[in-house]
Design brief:
Layout (H helix, E strand, L loop, with lengths): L2 E6 L2 H8 L7 H14 L4 E6 L6 H17 L1
Parallel strand pairs: 1-2
Length: 73
């Protein structure tokens, strides 16, 4: 794997991953560390945001995957 583009609907998260904003919320610090560690596996990465309304299909897919994971527990 060499390149990855992360697309999301949160400017806050995108700017935290870019290192422009600090992660202040304690519960988010571990997730931030996990995300930045995962990105280090790539030679190049980028992160961009799209308006939430344009992200509805992706959001529905993630929610369905999370629901399935919870059902399997």
């Amino acid at each position: 794997m060499t390149d990855v583009e992360v697309v999301g609907d949160s400017e806050l998260i995108a700017n935290q991953v870019r290192g422009m904003y600090k992660v202040k919320h304690e519960a988010m610090k571990a997730l931030h560390a996990e995300a930045t560690a995962a990105l280090k596996q790539f030679e190049r990465w980028s992160i961009r945001t799209v308006p939430r309304a344009q992200n509805a299909h992706a959001d529905a897919l993630v929610n369905a995957a999370l629901d399935q994971a919870l059902e399997r527990r």
